[in-house]
């Protein structure tokens, strides 16, 4: 798809994310080297060079993405894809609200029980009007 060269704000945001990623990756590469974790170092190096070489075609900018979860360039694309995927469903909701629920982490074996209990507690709170 590429980035439209006429969209200045988009290009500025992209440049900012690139700088942030490169600064983060230099530090993380250093840490990976200290720990002797060369697989991780390779991923950080890939992210450092994410979108390093760009090609312009038909007024759009193209480059190779690293697709690593710690790359701010790739995360912004992933976020946009998720928003585009869920927004058509979410815009149909009558009274949407955002809520973050946190609990102490559990192991995979106990997860189904945790989710069931969590859902029950949340349902009770909704019924009592304690949420929303
Ligand atoms: Zn990337």
Polypeptide structure, described:
This protein has two domains: 3-90, no CATH class; 97-132. The chain is 57% helix and 8% strand. The chain has helices at 8-35, 38-48, 72-90, 111-127, and strands spanning 3-4, 54-57, 60-63. Strands 1-3-2 form a three-stranded antiparallel β-sheet, with no helix packed on it. Helix 1 packs antiparallel against helix 2 (38-48). It is flat, with a radius of gyration of 21 Å. The model has no long low-confidence stretch (mean pLDDT 91). Bound molecules: zinc ion.
Distance from N terminus to C terminus (CA atoms, Å) equals 39 Å
Mean pLDDT across the residues is 91
Radius of gyration: 21 Å
* SS summary, helix count: 4
Poorly predicted segments: none
| Helix-strand category | mainly alpha
Supply the number of structural domains.
2
The H/E string reads EHHEEHH
Helix fraction bin: 55-70%
Strand order of the largest sheet: 1-3-2
Bound molecules: zinc ion
Shape: flat
Q: Could you tell me the strand content as a percent range?
A: 5-15%
How many runs of DSSP E, i.e. beta strands? 3
- Sheet bearing the most strands, described? 3 strands, antiparallel
């Amino acid at each position: 798809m590429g980035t439209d060269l006429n969209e200045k704000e988009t290009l500025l945001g992209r440049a900012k994310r690139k700088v942030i990623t490169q600064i983060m990756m230099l530090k993380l590469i250093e840490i990976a080297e200290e720990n002797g974790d060369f697989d991780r170092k390779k991923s950080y190096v890939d992210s450092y060079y994410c979108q390093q070489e760009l090609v312009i075609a038909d007024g759009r900018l193209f480059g190779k993405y690293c697709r690593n979860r710690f790359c701010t360039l790739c995360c912004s694309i992933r976020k946009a894809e998720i928003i585009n995927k869920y927004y058509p469903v979410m815009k149909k909701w009558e009274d949407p609200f955002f809520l973050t629920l946190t609990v102490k982490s559990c192991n995979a074996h106990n997860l189904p029980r945790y989710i069931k209990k969590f859902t029950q507690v949340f349902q009770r709170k909704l019924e009592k009007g304690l949420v929303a």
